[in-house]
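Crash report, auto-generated. Payload:
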Amino acid sequence: MERSRAGDVESFNALVETYQGQVYSFCLRMLASREEAEDAAQETFLSAYRHLAGFRGGSFRAWLLRIAANACTDELRRRRRRPRVSLDAPSNDSSAALEVPDQAESPEQRALRTELGRQIEAALMELPRDQRQAVILCDLHGLSYEEIGESTGSSLGTVKSRISRGRARLRELLVVQRELLRGNPRHSG
Amino acid sequence: MFQWIADRRHRRFRDDLSAYLDGRLSERRQRRLEEHLAACPACERELNELRSVVEAVKSLPTVPAPRSFAIQPAAAPRVAPAPRASLAFGALSAAALVVFGVLLGSDLLTRTGGGTVERQAASGAMAPAAAELGEGAEADEGGGQLEGAVGAPEEEAPAPTVAAPAEVPEPYASPPAGQENRGAELAPTPAIAERAPAAEEEGEEGSGRTVLRALEAGFAGLFLAALGGAVWIKRRGDVR
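Recovered output after restart:
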């Protein structure tokens, strides 16, 4: 980290290697477009490199995701200026874009996981952007309420409320697939 | 009515379910929710469904990056050396602020000191008002009054130098002083009329005051310019 701060590109690229999956995943789930997610992820790392001196300790991952959240907001703003797809309605290929092949599982397992994953991803895309961002940062990336507040420039109460409303909406959307949720031992609580 | 109250209570408990899953409820609210859950199967079912949803979202995989986002050394953006430059401006700004504080302190102390000796404290505070209004010959009546009251203004000069360190640790020493002056500008003018005769006593002391005031203005300007430079450089560094 210290060498990266001094401008050592190789050291910084080791950090990129570690976190690029998480940053790209976050951008993809926020933007639902591979191309835009790639642009946002690249912008995130360039911006992080430029402003590494401004990193004041704490969780580097949370700091990166905060930059990624800003990059996604910028990307969505640009998209609004040249409307191509609706912000909250996912594009047709968004679920397919989020599919991850896993060689270790059986075709049956994969079908179930893919189906369930697709439904959850689609439900996430139904959420308003601020709720989606809060739920993704909390449940997928494990950020604390405080870190999410810092990432999004929101108060603790707002974060709590967004997560609560987002999850409640997800539950409404997914309750139709309740049997699916309960049928998969991976997801039973 | 009772139903309405029950519904409201019920809704509040439902709103708490998400924070409860994250362990973010206060001890008291958690205890009350748990009591409610024990008696309300609908809320308990909702809690379990919510927990399943959270688990399902948590189980979503990290999507591998389609390509490396590593930065090419040749194309690496320059890491802005801005902090150092803005630090220099900041130091310059702080130095100017200290000198400004010393000058202003000496000016105010000598003037208000004379005012309190001779008249009420309130009218002493009015002294800067006349000065700041730029009333020509009246601009220096504070010094004249001091001369009349104390008789030896030069001897007062070392005192502010001792008082000055009190201004140094206070990072916003100048705004309150500025506010005081601004406030004084808006103050009613009777003090000017009251002090007009004192201006006649003004001797060569006036030119010393003018120089002091010019220095004050100069260092205040330097402080603002250096502060502006520091802010501008920092902002440019952030944008790049």
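Post-recovery validation: Chain B has ten helices and no strands.
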